[in-house]
Structure formats: C-alpha cells, structure tokens
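Subject — a protein and its fold
Fields — amino acid sequence, structure tokens
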Amino acid sequence: MAAYRFLRNTDVAWADILAPHWARTQERMRTQPVVLCIQDTTELDFDGQEIAGLGPLNYEARRGMYLHPTYAVTTEREPLGVLDAWMWAREKRDAVGMRPGHKESARWVEGYERVAKMASDMPETRLVYLADREADMVEMMRRAHELGTPADWLVRAKHDRCLPGDQGTRLWVTATADTPLGEIEFTLGAREHRPSRKVRQQLWARRVEIGDGKRGRLNVTCVVAREVDALPASSQWNGAC
C-alpha cells in the first residue's frame, strides 16, 4: 500500500525520482576520456490493461507508451547509467488518418541537444552521440552543426543519399570509391537460430557534402564497414555518418 501511495503522489514526477541517478551518471562520465551516449526507442506494452493515459503503439489496437532514453557507456562497454529519458503516449488518429500531437522525430534532435549541453560541462570528456537508422535525418545533423558540434555524433545510415554537385551519384558508392583504409576482425555473438561467428570487414571513411535543401550543404564524414567473404544470408555492409 505504501508503494501505491508513493506512485499516486502527484507532487513527485518520474523525472524527480531519476534526477539523483542522472547526477551520479554524469559524475561517472567525468572520469572517462570518451563516453558513448546511446539513444533508441522502446515500446512499453500495457495492452489489455485499463490504465489511463496510454496511447496506440505500432498498431492502433495495441496500447502503451514510448520510452526514449540516453544510455551512457564507456568504450570498454562498461555501463555508467542513464542520462535522461523522453516519454510519451501517442494520440489516436483523427477522422482523416492524421495523428495529432508533437512531432515524434524531434526526440533525436532534442537528444543531441541534451548531450551537447552536457559536453560543455565536461571539457575533459569526449561525448559521442550514437543512434540507429531512424536518426539519419538532416534536421539532427544541421542542429549539430549549428551548435558547433560540441559532441561527436555517429548515426547508422538509412538513406543512400544523392550527393549534390560533382561528388558522385550516391553516398555509399562515393564513400567506397577509394582503396579501403584497412580491415578489422571480431566475433559476432550468437543470436536466435544463429551461432556466433568470425567477421572480417573492410573500412572506408570519406568527407562528403550532403544537401540541406534551400539552406545549402552540410559537411559530414561517411564511414563504411563492409564484410569480406560474407555468407549469403549475412548483411554485406554497414554504413554510418
């Protein structure tokens, strides 16, 4: 009963409860030369439960919330803690199929802004914002440039962009046009129905310009890791900017 009373207390928000943990996470980050600030979105599925404030998930009939945290990890994979979290419940689509409410893609831009703000308070620590393909958006890259890129960013490429001017036709072909910089080898861990295996990849890195509409162009570095002698069912490459 005490736990239920505590959770029903409207004077204390979830962010207030997590604030001491966030502060301790930043203390641990200051002791590291490099910290990876990893962001992704998770579904909190409460389908079938009568809870007020929930919204649709990937299907309108499924009910729950979305959680978008920033997780701090060292380059040696040691977890340092959670930095922040972005939570929301979607609203139902209206009569014409549009979903009202805030723009969900803003979480990637705002996530970088929060990491950039922390970077100014940690001059001895290099912060690297990491995100999956959903963050491959010009808005996020533009915001990083506007802020002077106080934190590095590494985003897995989703779009094989057309490059403006005389750089070439497409991003990935242009980035891999030269001789590879070298190779890396590692063991890919086992997954469901797939045993662990050795992986060998060739690496490329190239500075390119991508279009930013009427605003002009943005300079980014495209890094490509392509597997050598991959099995037919395996992914042949991974690209990032």
Observations:
- The radius of gyration is 21 Å.
- The chain has a mean pLDDT of 90.
